[in-house]
Amino acid sequence: MYCDRCGLNFLPKQSVCTRCKKVATRYWFQLMSLVTLLVALASNTVLGIFLLPRLMEAPHGRLLFRIWYWLDQNAALYGWVPLAGGLLAWDYFIWKEARPKVKGWLTRKLLTFSLAAGVAPMIPWWIPAGQPPGEFLSMISRYQGLPAMLAWSVVLVVTIILCIDPESRDYLLGHGRTLSVVSTGMLVLVLAMTLLGWSLTY
């Protein structure tokens, strides 16, 4: 990759240019996009806990906010599935040639384990080879949110492992422009829905 200021060619493993000691613009794009995405998700979580229950009882726009609440609930339970599948597909098709053996093996095993643990309760009882142990099923029935929390934790750990290293982060996030559009769009959508909710309530 090339430095935006002095034009020096340096490796993605290096966070700063060795000549002018400046951080590449794409890294700022990546950082600010991740921060914006985190703010949007945190805002949506706070709204789902404190504001949405009141908005669902409002006289106007009740259906809209019920749909929003339903989407939040299902994203919290099953949103890790497309993320884990997308990371596995990215690992196989894009990162395949440049991935380190140990890190690539670890991330694949973690994501495969999370997907297997999430799919195991849906396996029919009449398939004895695929049926999970009885202790596992009793634990799931006792703590219904536990599998989702474990799966989200695995996806979060894998994402942190990939984003700590500059080279794998560069492969995953690219220039950061697409992620910045997605994160900004999510933040604008959450703010627009919040303003709409306040206007309908008060």
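[next item in queue]
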Amino acid sequence: MNDKKLQPGTPIDLFMILISKKMRYVFLFVLLFMWINSSYKKAAKKAVISSLFSLIINRLIKSVYFKPRPFMKRRIGILIPSKTDSSFPSKHTLLVFSISTSVFLYERFIGSIMWGLSMLTGFSRIWLGHHYPIDIIGSAFIGSFVSILTDKTFRFLKSKDLA
């Protein structure tokens, strides 16, 4: 199926593998720090909730829609093993954008850095041959939208004294 399967060679390949595999730990560390720090706990709570909703949306979309991953449809090499489920949406991208947008809505500086890391994560998924650019763009939109909707819902409930 693939001509040059699983052969990382260049430093950029290795960097993209590192980003794709390990960036989730950076996001978990930031969430843990925010959860422990009482002034950021509300933002961390919203980020976790929006991530859970994003995962549900991911499952729903993948249960009704299948789009072959780039390495399944074309003769391109992949740098690390991948599932053969639907290319859209990208779970990695959904989650990092969901978290970074939630953080951005609360703390612009940290959120901006996390948004940059989210874009790098999405790009790494394309570089590895696991997703198409439109998968990443759509997943970033969904993850961000879910976070904004979660934030708006919390604000609405708070204004009605329900939260």
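[queue empty]
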